[in-house]
Amino acid sequence: MGKIGWNRPLRFTGRTGKGIDMDRFVLTNNPLVREKLQGEETVEFVETGFMELLSHARDYIHGGHKLLTHPLSGSVKPMETPYKSLMLTKSKGPLDLSSLGLIENALDACRKFQFRYEKHPERVAADFQFIDWTLIESALR
Amino acid sequence: MKLTLGYIDIRDIQLSNESKVENGTLYVSADAVKALVMEDENVASVAVDVARPGESVRITPVKDVIEPRVKVEGPGSVFPGMLGKVQTVGSGRTHVLRGCAVVTTGKIVGFQEGVIDMTGPGADYTLFSKLMNLVLVIEPKDGLKQHEHEHTIRMAGLKTAAYLGELARSLKADEEEVFESLSIKESAEKYPNLPRVGYLQMLQSQGLLHDTYVYGVDAKKSLSTIINPTEVMDGAILSGNCVSACDKNTTYHHLNNPVVYDLFRQHGKTLNFAAMMITNENVYLADKERSSDWSAKMAEFLGLDGVIISQEGFGNPDTDLIMNCRKIEEKGIKTVIITDEYAGRDGTSQSLADANPLADAVVTGGNANEVIILPKMDKVIGHLEAVETIAGGFAGNIRPDGSIEVELQVITGATNEVGFGTLSAR
Predict the structure, then answer these.
(1) pTM, whole model, 2 decimals?
(2) How far apart, in whole angstroms, are the C-alpha atoms of residue A67 and residue B284?
(3) Crossing angle (nearest 10°) for helices A123-140 and B146-166
């Protein structure tokens, strides 16, 4: 792969090269995301619930990592689905207050909603995995 | 850009052996519609049904609602870039079959589509209960992937709406309305003493089933930009978004955006409707910053005194809404934001996931968490069991008497954020 220069066109977002080499990783409890991103991106898979995953993200943020995606899904209520994928920086720096604010707001939003997932039939689990996957995928492009 | 809309009022739909419009009735050949939809080999079967206001009918799961329109004069055709070529629309003459709609249904994923009740308490929460609806129940072929299924249903709805709209091409309009958007220079010269007001429409763009298309372009791939408000009347913006029924904008909402129409009706009287801008709602934080910076930059460049901002959806887009609001306010430009609320069942929780003191002028479309009991309907078009897993529904919510307990979130258009709704503080 040549150096970035005149001859190598950049993709629209300017994010080039393999994800796995970039300063980002995906924190997820979604097995579909782990499967889809195998070999493409750095994935940290944690088998845990929705709020617990956000707490994990908060731990990373306390450790100096920054959020790259918003922790709340668009138009999917936080406790509607058990699956969540987030992108954070691999690198660490001083505590990023805006990341902290976002994750704390997200945890607050969760507490507001009654946890519904146990009441959903099994067949919907695959759909929830899929929607969570498409949301994180849109951020990877 | 000057566009004349000719409204042809539809007071009934009848299935017939020939498609035509006569004396306010839309006659539809179900066979012709089926043949049109079945042109897509991804469709295994399609049923065509009619739902009229006042009938004991529930339509679910609703994917999109589209108004039949046709371009009679002027460049381009309706739904440019998706059905027609990409040529710029929004000028000339367009005919509208007013009072009816094409409704598509489909269980693309197990949740997130909506309900339209044509009578009863549920009907009060959606203006679609007041329309004559031609409903397409589309079954995909086995093994069709979700994004192909969504595409299939989207195109079927648009094709059917364009096919029906075509029936209005040579008809005499019952009523006409003219909309003219002027250039920045023209409007400033014509209305020097009126406040220059812009409209910033936020478009859902978070991925599959959360997408909006502008001239066929996926909104997540675009930077914030300007559009002539008359372009939306020809279907320049349309919905690929089937999430959260209450506050997603169907194609019908885009075609009939009340913010656009009301601004036009005030244009030259109380304000100068100087510009319309569109922006997206992406997941990636840097995209949110970039898009909102761009919107604020445009608002300032256009010399606006005030901007109305409408959101689509909820969750992380609340962050985009507040970013847009704050950044535009920081330029010294007043804003009003239109949104809906997720304030919990008792309405006491914070309504948005994000907040800022600069967002001090808010119009709300209602609280989507409010619970409502929908009585049993005599007929269901679509799939009733989908209601259990629709966002705002929950397992076991179909009671023994057939009524269902749901949040307003399940009703298509209930808390719509461009103001196309019935909930009001008046």
Answers:
(1) 0.92
(2) 9
(3) 80
Element (H, E) at A98: helix A97-112
Residue B27 pLDDT = 98
For residue A9, pLDDT over 70 is answered with no
Contact B101, B346 (CB under 8 A): no
* CB contact residues (below 8 A), chain B span 246-285, against chain A: 247-248, 281-285
Could you tell me where the beta strands, DSSP code E, fall in B343-409? Answer: 362-367, 371-374, 379-382, 404-407
Task: Give A121 to chain B, closest Cα distance, Å.
Answer: 7
Q: Which of B10, B40, B34, B44 has its CA nearest to residue B24? A: B10
**Six-digit token pair at A129?**
């995995």
Report residue B163 as tokens: 């096919």
Classify residue B342 by its DSSP letter. -
Under the banding of pLDDT at 50, 70 and 90, the label for residue B411 is very high
Q: Delimit the domains of chain A by residue range.
A: 19-140
Query: A127 touching B, CB under 8 A?
Result: yes
Q: How confident is the model at residue A5 (pLDDT cuts 50, 70, 90)?
A: very low
Express as a percent the part of chain B with pLDDT over 70: 96
Give the pLDDT confidence score for residue A13 in this predicted structure. 40
- Report residue A41 as tokens: 């991106």
Residue B101's H or E segment, with its range, is strand B100-105
Confirm or reject contact between A111 and chain B (CB < 8 A): no
